[in-house]
Amino acid sequence: MPILTALLLLLVLVFAQVLIAIFSATLGLGFIIAFVLVIALAGGIFFATTAYSVFFGAPFVPTDEQRVSAMLALAELKPGEKLYDLGSGDGRIVIAAARAGAYAEGWEISPYLWLYSTWQIRRQGLGDRARIHLGSYWEEKFNDADVVTLFLITQQMGRMQGKLQDELRLGGRVVSYAFKFPHWQHERKDRGLFLYRKG
Ligand SMILES: C[S@@+](CC[C@H](N)C(=O)[O-])C[C@H]1O[C@@H](n2cnc3c(N)ncnc32)[C@H](O)[C@@H]1O
After folding, report:
1. Which of 78, 82, 194, 195 is deepest in the core (most CB within 10 A)?
2. CA 84, CA 91: separation in Å to the nearest integer?
3. What is the pLDDT of residues 84-103, one digit of tens each?
4. Minimum-distance ligand 1 atom for the alpha carbon of 177
5. Rg for the chain, CA atoms, rounded
6. pTM to 2 decimals?
7. CATH superfamily of 65-197
8. pLDDT tens, residue by residue, 149-169
């Protein structure tokens, strides 16, 4: 009888061991599949938005901090004015403008940069004066902007000039880093930044 009990106990233990092995293998496989799916989804979003930004805007290259200050100075941004940064990247221009007392909004196509910049705005307590929109600036109108800031690529400057020509109010200022509009004459230039004023 004790031998039979021991054998039964051994059998139950082996059976339990097999069940645990099967469940942990299943859970492990499920975890691996979920992990691969999440990585594939995150990678897919990254490549899709990067491809979009390359073909319909500009890839992410941040403006250095010195030029961010120079941009706001060149635009003569005043407290209470509205600044829009089209393709706002990590939000540095929007944040600098809000810190200078302006109402600043950015448009960003990458959900990762949108998340990061939105988090930075919250973290720095600028939520009442700064906001980043997730989406393409081609889908928006910028009629009420005092200042628009841009860091695009040559191929997009003609299209952007047409858009701002239609939408920007008279006297609205535009500062473009590195790239000029094909048919507008800039008013001033500083460190590769071009200031335009809609006349
Ligand atoms: C050269 S970076 C400039 C970032 C920021 N303005 C700065 O100066 O630091 C251009 C940004 O525009 C974004 N972008 C490109 N095309 C866009 C579009 N159609 N709508 C919104 N954002 C776009 C890119 O994801 C990238 O973050």
Report:
1. 194
2. 11
3. 999 999 999 999 999 999 99
4. 8
5. 27
6. 0.82
7. Vaccinia Virus protein VP39 (3.40.50.150)
8. 999 999 999 999 999 999 999
